Request: fold
Amino acid sequence: MRIGQRFKNEGGAVIVVVTAALVALLLSVAVVADIGLLYQERRQLQTSTDAAALAAAMDISEGRGVVEAKAEAVQYVSVNANVAPRLVDVGFPAVDRVRVVAQTERRIFFSGLVGREDALVKAESTAAMGSASGVAKLVPFIVPLQKVQDHLGASRAGSFELGEDRPLEEFSKLQTISGDTITYTITYNNTGNKSESISVRDPLPDGTVYINGSADSGGSYSASTKEVTWSFANVAPGDYRIMRFAVRATSGSVGSIKNTAYLTTFGNNKTISADTGNSAQRGYFWLCDFDGGSNGITQYDDWIRKGFPDYVYAGSIANGTGMKVALKDAMEWRRQSDPNIVVPIYSYTQGGGSKGKYQVIGFAEFVITAFDFSGQPKTITGYFTDGTVVSGVQGSAPDAYFGVDTVWLVK
Reply:
């Protein structure tokens, strides 16, 4: 009797221990299951805030304003992560930053066994925006700097010749007007075969005043002579210098104000001028590649449709070649399917045709509205925009900057 009673008592104890172990195991499984569910929830929420921050940064960079950017970010997280809009916060901690914070409570099923039914899930993302010093997916048309400024916006669309290479002038000048402010851009290209030391002076036109601090590239303004001046030593053959400054119109029609800049080259002992009123807008669109000029129709066709696959950086050399009639189908596909293309900009080319070497000094977005390959010269019609966001490498703005930016996550 004693032995039987002992086994009976021990059996009861074992049942208690096993039951407790099973309960602990079930609770552990429940916690692990809920942790897995919460991990998936947070992952989805983080992906949504990442995408929302990038989208908002893109909106800001393309000029759509903080109200629209904020609304799009909130909607994106709300729709894709099933979060109430009131639980999504969009902030702008700096002029080039967008922060998206979202939180929500998710029901945890098994852990309710221990008295907890909900858990807080939170995600935060910060995106930055800035100029692109390198750009992927370029379409292989390199365009002259002076064409861009004159054809910004749909109302200023133009028709441009393809396949005829003409270098820009040795010395040229452009102007941009915004309200009563005129910004001048002066370009010097060393078209010779030896280094040159140069000076540039630009007397202020009548009816204007200099905007303090606007001269870049080491330029200085003299109040006594009312001139902006620059000096550069040993500019190498094929190299260039870009100079800018701004004035404010105080009288007369802003559009009628003309201005002349003067270049002195000491090696050749000559002085030439460039005038905003009669500067010849020479230079043509040119088919090009970025890897030594060894490509054929198949590669160009693919690049026109999809863009050049690698990054191209400001300062790179593009190789020119003649436009091909066989690329007509690719051009028509691009015009109909995705007419907004990003192209490199050049200031001067050494040589021409298949031997032409173009120095990339920036990037711009161009909208194709038409093209004509029926005869000679072949032409492309469209206009440039004042900015877009691309797949690019962030860096300092290139010499020719027309709002081509990139966005990236910083947190």
